[in-house]
């Protein structure tokens, strides 16, 4: 049986962190709804867990949802994993896969495409960080000069106040 003919049933654990706790619950509900709207995907069940305060964190919460899904094939499952980045994935069925090389090619090409796009985003962010750091370093003398001028102005104002007294 090929993966194009085999529906895949799996459980996702989706975790979110942040504040306020109500926001986490709403975010998980929205994510579950969006997963169910994905092509070739049916939500079989979902369970939201209430937000919990993180240890050693003031007003910072974590929550997770267990979402059982059924996809038309392995490719749709792979796309969901990359799109929603679950913390955990468990394939419930089928127990075994027999995958034609064309189907495996689709999955691997999707994997490669996503990795390349993540690499591109990472490179852009690294370059932007370097540019910002260089701008900040270039502005440090200017910032120091502004602080000196402000200090001089404050000193002059204080001297004028002292003379008036």
Q: In a few lines, what is going on in this structure?
A:
The protein has 165 residues and is an alpha+beta fold. Helices cover 56% and strands 23% of the residues.
Secondary-structure blueprint of this entry?
Elements: E1 8-18, H1 21-37, E2 41-48, E3 52-53, E4 61-71, H2 74-84, E5 88-93, H3 101-164
Antiparallel strand pairs: 1-4, 1-5, 2-4, 3-4
Helix pairs in contact: 2-3
Give your account of this protein's structure:
- This protein has 165 residues and is of the alpha+beta class.
- The chain has helices at residues 21-37, 74-84, 101-164; strands spanning 8-18, 41-48, 52-53, 61-71, 88-93.
- The chain has 2 domains: 8-99, Ribosomal protein S6/Translation elongation factor EF1B (Alpha-Beta Plaits, 2-Layer Sandwich), CATH 3.30.70.60; 100-165.
- Helices cover 56% and strands 23% of the residues.
- Strands 1, 2, 3, 4 and 5 form a 5-stranded antiparallel β-sheet that branches.
- Helix 2 (74-84) runs parallel beside helix 3 (101-164).
- The radius of gyration is 27 Å and the shape is elongated.
Keywords:
single chain, 165 residues, alpha+beta, Alpha-Beta Plaits, 2 domains, five-stranded antiparallel β-sheet, 3 helices, elongated
């Amino acid at each position: 049986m090929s993966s194009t003919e085999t529906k895949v049933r799996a459980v996702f654990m989706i975790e979110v962190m942040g504040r306020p706790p109500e926001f986490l619950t709403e975010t998980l509900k929205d994510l579950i709804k969006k997963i169910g709207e994905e092509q070739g995907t049916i939500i079989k069940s979902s369970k939201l867990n209430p937000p919990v305060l993180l240890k050693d964190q003031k007003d910072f919460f974590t929550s997770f949802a267990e979402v059982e899904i059924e996809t038309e094939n392995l490719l749709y499952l792979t796309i969901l994993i990359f799109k929603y980045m679950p913390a955990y994935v468990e394939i419930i069925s089928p127990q075994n896969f027999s995958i034609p090389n064309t189907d495996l090619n689709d999955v691997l090409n999707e994997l490669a495409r996503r990795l390349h796009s993540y690499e591109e985003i990472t490179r852009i962010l690294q370059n932007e960080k370097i540019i910002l750091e260089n701008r900040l370093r270039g502005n440090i003398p200017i910032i120091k000069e502004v602080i000196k001028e402000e200090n001089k102005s404050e000193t002059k104002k204080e001297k004028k106040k002292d003379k008036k007294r």
